[in-house]
Amino acid sequence: MSKAEFPLPIPRTLADLQGLISNKVQESLFLDYKDSRALQSKNLNELSKDVSAFANAAGGILIYGIKEDKLYPVSLDSGVPATEITRETIEQKILSNGSPRLDGLDIFPIELSNSSFAYVIVVQKALQPHQDRVTHRYYKRFNFKSQPMEDYEIEDVRKRRQGFDSLISVNLLVSQAFLELAIENKGTVVAEDVKFNFEPVLPWNHGTQPHAFKNGIPKFAPGRRLVFVIGHTVNALQPASTFPKNFVLYVNYLHSGTDTSICEEFPIDVASVDGSVAESSDIAKLDSNLSLALGRIEKKLAEISSSLKIIEDVRSGTGLNLSITTLKNLSQVATGQSNFEKIPLQHTSREVLMEVLGIDFDLAWQIEKNIHWPDNGMTMEKLLVDKPEILLQLRRYFK
Fold first, then answer.
1. First to last CA, the chain
2. Type and span of the H or E element at 22
3. How far is CA 314 from the centre of its chain?
4. Contact predicate 56/131, CB 8 Å
5. Helix H or strand E segment including 394
6. How far apart are CA 135 and CA 48, in angstroms?
7. Rounded to whole angstroms, how far apart are CA atoms 348 and 329?
8. Engineered SS bond to 194: which of 66, 217, 260, 272, CB 3.0-4.6 Å?
């Protein structure tokens, strides 16, 4: 859901904490004061229970660093030493000890002295039951305490999700030699502020996470589909490979149709594709009939050459867009002939580079990147200085 409207401002400064004390703001369904000692290592497991209780109720604010007496704040305590615990430690403990992953969790450290902090934890109302993994139970904030939930209460929380249609779908694909993730907005409205989180983190090709996964997608339009290469199929499935055989993709986004913040998790079983057959590429499908097909196309082009100079791209399920010129040239390359029109490099994809030059994915990617986003002073000659035969073929087949 959208960020909750709590019946009091979220404290973010030392003055805000002191204001709660001086105004004698009582604990409530939305507010709980805790001694800083509750964040010591031996007590940290209680943290996930209290957070889960707020999430299963109406959301709320946990404040660590205020002493209370009979539900009223009395004074600030000494706080948590910065050397003992950090914001990251608290967040990691909450996320690892609760399931499913909480959406909209905010943690604000407030400095009490040069070496200690109070912590304000803001928990949003969950759209599905949230379990404390330490006790394997569900809790709910009731009468100022975290109480175990009855079965009917768990079912009531589960019903919150009804009426909120999911927008995002995630599918694992096998395309040629690569593993791919297809991310799609299957809904009818925009998914806003889409964020991605992988657990565990994937070992990305070239060591760089794709921009969408790293920075998110501000507005993901309905019907839009993005496909990302996440690894080489053979390498990923090898028993000794460090590529995770199972991982979870968490997707957080704002449902613009309902103004609802949603967190979804997509378990991905990489091992499940072992032994499956990838759909043939566009080139492979056309290979056996290429000469015949080109003959028919050339004849038709000759008949309508006065009005038609180029034929529409031939499109296949692999996503390759191959013009008739490219197909004719590939036929010439395959038969060892050289009477062909050179292919413009600016309109060439890494798939075509791989097919024409007979190179692997990594080298094709380096060439493509140098074409479209060249580094300062990096020429094609420098890039291929130790591969003169590839440079020769590149000049022969491309312009």
1. 53
2. helix 14-22
3. 32
4. no
5. helix 388-397
6. 10
7. 13
8. 217
**Contact between 67 and 35 (Cβ < 8 Å):** yes
Determine the pLDDT at residue 176.
64
Q: Is the peptide bond before 239 cis (omega within 30 degrees of 0)?
A: no
Tokens of 60: 């709320």
- CA distances 256 to 79, 162, 218, 270, Å, are 40, 16, 12, 32
Closest by alpha carbon to 365, among 205, 226, 167?
Answer: 205
Q: What are phi and psi of 98, to 5 degrees?
A: -130, 155
What CA–CA distances, in Å, run from 386 to 162, 290, 302, 322, 390? 60, 34, 43, 30, 9
| Residue 289: Cβ within 10 Å count | 10
Tokens of 165: 């249609």
Residue for token digits 């190179």? 359
Tell me how far apart the alpha carbons of residues 84 and 65 are, in angstroms, rounded to a whole number.
Answer: 14
| Per-residue tokens: 357 | 């030059």
Burial pattern 136-153, b for ≥16 Cβ within 10 A else e, equals eebbbbeeeebbebeeeb
State both tokens at 233.
């199929």
- Reference 369, options 206, 209, 232; nearest CA is 206
Pairing of strands 178-185, 225-232: antiparallel
Cβ neighbours, 10 Å, residue 346: 9
